[in-house]
């Protein structure tokens, strides 16, 4: 059974009996993403993300059955759903970058109508037929600059290091089924040497990953600063002691 997320984000829990603690197996689904349910578990359902195969438990109330197929994707860092086609109407909920939405094709001024009769600013959306935003993945990742760090987060309200990579690659038109940095280090692109570093390369450490913005500086979402920021690669080398892999998109 395929269910669709109807909240700004829905946590995928590795340990539903301890919902107030983020486990090493947690992740998130964004609004409009789908979840392939395998079984019921009290107030939760167990299954996997249709996007990246991440498995765990999601609160049933955050999901709906038989939702219409999404046809548009949010391309701004954050936007809002409004009850009326006016920026002066009180927003109903925020939507993060790469959230998926179904539009009716009806417009009113600068707003587009959703299948629920609500409205979103049209310039914050793109047709879902292509997720390629026409930017390189570094520029897309830089759109998250200043976003709070959130372990297991995938949204503009809070994101972790590997989700930053995943969302940037998706926005640039690349497939990125790997959610965790360990899997990304083994599956993305090709391996290169440190003396060949350039903009766009992914640098991995034990349990961490960042994206080079030039030959010396790296963008990363980090618990060290609880933020997404650019810092010298040498600072991460001092902290983590060893680079475990460097990958370049092929």
Please characterize this protein's 3D structure:
The protein has 250 residues and is mostly beta strands. It folds into three domains: 2-65, SH3 type barrels (Roll); 74-127, SH3 type barrels; 137-248, endopeptidase domain like (from Nostoc punctiforme) (endopeptidase fold (from Nostoc punctiforme), Alpha-Beta Complex), CATH 3.90.1720. The chain is 13% helix and 38% strand. The chain has four helices and 23 strands. It has helices at residues 137-142, 161-171, 181-187, 233-240; strands spanning 2-5, 9-12, 27-30, 34-41, 44-49, 55-59, 63-65, 72-74, 78-81, 93-96, 100-101, 103-108, 111-114, 119-121, 125-127, 154-155, 158-159, 190-191, 202-205, 208-212, 217-222, 227-232, 245-248. A six-stranded antiparallel sheet has the order 18-23-19-20-21-22, sandwiched between helices. A five-stranded antiparallel sheet has the order 6-5-4-1-7, with no helix packed on it. A three-stranded antiparallel sheet has the order 11-8-15, with no helix packed on it. The longest helix is centred in the middle third of the chain and has 11 residues, at 161-171.
Secondary structure category? mainly beta
Number of helices: 4
Low-confidence stretches: none
> What is the CA-based Rg, rounded?
18 Å
What's the helix and strand layout?
Blueprint: E1 2-5, E2 9-12, E3 27-30, E4 34-41, E5 44-49, E6 55-59, E7 63-65, E8 72-74, E9 78-81, E10 93-96, E11 100-101, E12 103-108, E13 111-114, E14 119-121, E15 125-127, H1 137-142, E16 154-155, E17 158-159, H2 161-171, H3 181-187, E18 190-191, E19 202-205, E20 208-212, E21 217-222, E22 227-232, H4 233-240, E23 245-248
Antiparallel strand pairs: 1-4, 1-7, 2-3, 4-5, 5-6, 8-11, 8-15, 9-10, 12-13, 13-14, 16-17, 18-23, 19-20, 19-23, 20-21, 21-22
